[in-house]
Amino acid sequence: MNFNNAKFYASYGAFSQIPPCEKIEIAFAGRSNVGKSTLINKLFNRKSLARVSSVPGKTATINFYGLDNVYFVDLPGYGYAKVSKAEKKRWSNLIEGYLNSNRDIRLIFMLIDMRHPPSADDITMINYLIDMELPFVIVLTKADKLNKTQREKRMSGFENEIPYFHEITVVPFSAQTFEGVERLREIVEEVISDDDIDEELEG
Fold first, then answer.
1. What is the residue range of 17's domain?
2. From CA 17, how far away is CA 175, in angstroms rounded?
3. Contact between residue 52 and residue 41 where contact means Cβ atoms under 8 Å apart
4. Of 190 and 61, more confident
5. C-alpha–C-alpha distance, residues 94 and 12, integer Å
6. Would you say residue 200 has pLDDT above 50?
7. Domains in the chain: how many in total?
8. Of 14, 21, 78, 94, which residue is 20 to 30 A from 156 by alpha carbon distance?
9. In the predicted model, what is the mean pLDDT of residues 19-48?
10. What is the CATH number of the domain that holds 188?
11. What is the pTM of this model?
12. What is d(CA 63, CA 72) in angstroms, rounded to the nearest whole number?
């Protein structure tokens, strides 16, 4: 898979606008300003495939990016306080509508800022994914911001803060040092190769 070939496909402001599922999908979820757009750009080795904003809560749509037989789906960031209740409800409906649909969601990258304990919204999302039996990987962003001692302290903290932490695949990520990029690409390719095996079995 050539990650450089990813292309922007479409943005949708309401779940009802999204066309029927036609490819397997891998989604990115996390609170506002956790670094989803930055991660997507690093994953596909592009500077501005996904627009990076310094303003939290800027991504208010579901954005689809296409590569081969996969759509990569950037969900709106949650947990940003400085928007109206109506806008928060729209974002919530977008995220829940997508995750609770019958779309072929093969994996969700759940992003958490490594520098801080997970927020209440993060824990709610993790529990939701577990309850819905949706496969997910936790990506700990901004790993370069911590020194070795701070990192060890946070990893120890996550063990108590995140439910079933030891049963979840966890990948520290840094946009500055590229830590975690290759591991995330490997995970994507594993998901896609699993799909190829399924098709062979069905054939």
1. 3-202
2. 32
3. yes
4. 190
5. 9
6. no
7. 1
8. 78
9. 92
10. 3.40.50.300
11. 0.88
12. 8
